[in-house]
Structures are given as C-alpha cells and as structure tokens.
Amino acid sequence: MRRIGIPKALMYYRFFPLWSAFFRELGCEVVISDPVGKGFLGRQSVAYFEDSCLPMKLMVAHCLDLVEKVDTLFVPRLISIHRKYIMCPKFRGVPDIIKLATGGQAEVMDEPFDFRLGNDPWGAFSRAIGQRLGWRSREILAASRGALRVQAKFEKDLVRRVNGLAIRDIFNLERPTPEATSPAGNLDVALIGHPYNLYDVDVGKDVIGMARELGCRIAIADSLDGYEIDKKVSTLSKEIYWSSGREIIGAALIFLARDDINGVVFLSSFKCGIDALLQEYLKRVFKGQRESIIPFLTLSLDEHTTVQGMATRLEAFVDICRDGKRKDAR
Ligand code: SF4
C-alpha cells in the first residue's frame, strides 16, 4: 500500500478532510506528521528558511518528520483556491522549498492547483494525482466526488467542532462532531486569521481553547457566506488580490458590524507581508468610524510568542468585551 505523507501545516488546516478522503478512497495509507516538538527551529534544514514566516518553517519541520516514514510527500503547488484571486506567492514555492530541505529523500507530489482555470479545477487536479498513482478515470472520479462530500460535511460542522472539541481533535476525522455548541459561553468572540494561525497549536498556542476557557463562544470566518465577504471587500478603495487576505478583511468588517459579536481577534503572522497590509487597512477603516465599535485585538504570532503572553492579552481583552457588553445591556 502506498504511503502518502500529509504534513500537518499550512492548508492542512483547511483541506485535510478532502485530501485524506481522496487518497484513502484510492487505497493509499495516509500518514500525518507528528507534533514537531520544541527544538524544531534548531534543525539546520529549518534554519535555512530563517526569513520565512513561522507557518512556513513549520511546514518544513513537518515534512522532515515525514520524509523517512512515507513513499510520497503530498505538497501541492497551491496557486489559487478562488475563482479570481490568488494565494500568497510563498505557496507556489513550497514544493521547491521542501525538495531542497528534504534533499530528495522522498518523492514530492507537487501537482499545481489553480482554481481560476477551467470549469472543474478540483476534477483536473484530482485526475492528475490519480493518474500519477496509476488509477483509471472511473475510480478517480468516484474518489474525488466522495472526497468533496467529506469536505462539505466537515465545513458544515466546523463551527460546532471549534466550539465543542479540543483543538487537537478539530481535524481528527475519527472524532464525531458534538451535537450542539457549548452552552457555557456568555460572550461571542470572532477569531479571524489564516486557518493555520487559528488551528495549529505551534502557531496560535490554542487561542481557541483559551478563549473558550474564558467563557467565549467562537465565531469564525468559515461560518460566513463567501459572496457576502466578497461584497464587503469590494467596497474598499483598493483591490485585494490574495484570497486569504480578502477572507480575513471581509470577515473582520462583517463581524465588527454585527450586534451579536462582542469582540474580534485577528491572529496575524509576524513576517507576513499580507497580514501587515491587512492591519494597515483595518487601521484606516477604524479611523473612518465616528462611533465607537466593538473591541478589536491583533495578536502577532511568531516563534517568540508564549502561551503566557497570549493568555494575558486575551484575558484583558475578554474583560474589555465583557465590560462593553454590560454597558450595552444598560
Ligand atoms: S500568507 Fe503570510 S503567513 Fe501565510 S504563508 Fe504567506 S507569508 Fe506566511
């Protein structure tokens, strides 16, 4: 049985259900990387990428963990996951970075994915991979359709998983989705950012768990309509070309305007040009507001971010949100 390694980093935190279901349907064994451990930054192959953002360094570390355990590393070249907009340019180079870091020890499956091309980009992508694995069109089609159903179900359940499961289980498909969100939360806080900033404990330090402990129900961008996000972003004076940037800024604008949200937290990657730009955008949006709006917090994440530092800032933020909610109730 062919062993396909899926690194637990970057867009694993969006597409793992789709990718893993597809490979399993095609009879492959899916191997996920183990936690990288504290010393991963000291590994020489990771240190080469010192100038990169933390999520990118973690991608290298996860691939290094997998390289001796699998036949093939799955590192697609993600160019676009949106009909019009593109991914951060670093995603195009990820397969090359991984080939360099792993020194050719494992085959790297690096088929490009560009959602802007053709009528059925997922169909074309899955066909290219399936054929590389030696399967015929009929089996590939059945596997790709089955995988889309798994992904759609996962996305439908995501808010409940975020609010009802420990962070390590959100993407563990063997854990069923809890029936209802925790009734304990008495504040509604939106967490926005790249999915790996939210769900990768080595980046976001389990901000989801911390916020839930403080009595927050979590709202996420995935619960919003993509069309609504696009509409909101198109009102800005400048076009944003990166799909993740559009999602983040659109979600921020929508959540900030909603009466049922008590605060918004933006998890931003230090050394990320897109996030730096988004912060500037948001600052300008706030400047234009005459009336006070709900509390907004930016948490900048890198390898020096500590759990204690995050917890302190989040606690103070939640106090402010709670105070604002009390005032509104008067
Ligand atoms: S969008 Fe930012 S955080 Fe994500 S990979 Fe690109 S530079 Fe890194």
Structure description:
The chain has 330 residues and is of the alpha/beta class. It has two domains: 3-150, 3-Layer(aba) Sandwich (Rossmann fold), CATH 3.40.50; 182-329, Rossmann fold (3-Layer(aba) Sandwich), CATH 3.40.50. It contains 14 helices and ten strands. Strand 1, helix 1 (12-25) and strand 2 (29-32) form a beta-alpha-beta unit. It is globular and about 65 Å long. The structure holds iron/sulfur cluster. Iron/sulfur cluster binds next to helix 3 and helix 13.
Entry summary:
With 330 residues, the chain is α/β, with parallel strands linked by helices. It has helices spanning 12-25, 44-47, 54-66, 90-102, 121-132, 137-164, 167-170, 195-199, 201-204, 207-213, 226-233, 243-256, 273-287, 307-329, and strands at residues 3-6, 29-32, 72-74, 77-80, 107-109, 112-114, 187-193, 216-220, 263-269, 296-301. The protein is globular and about 65 Å long.
Low-confidence stretches: none
Briefly note the CATH topology name of the largest domain: Rossmann fold
Strand order of the largest sheet: 2-1-3-5
Q: Rounded to an integer, what's the Rg over CA atoms?
A: 20 Å
Structurally, how many domains make up the residues? Answer: 2
Under the CATH scheme, the architecture of the largest domain is 3-Layer(aba) Sandwich
Bound molecules: iron/sulfur cluster
Anisotropy-based shape:
globular
Mean pLDDT: 91
Main sheet summary: 4 strands, parallel
The proportion of residues in beta strands is 5-15%
> SSE order in H/E notation?
EHEHHEEHEEHHHEHHHEHHEHEH
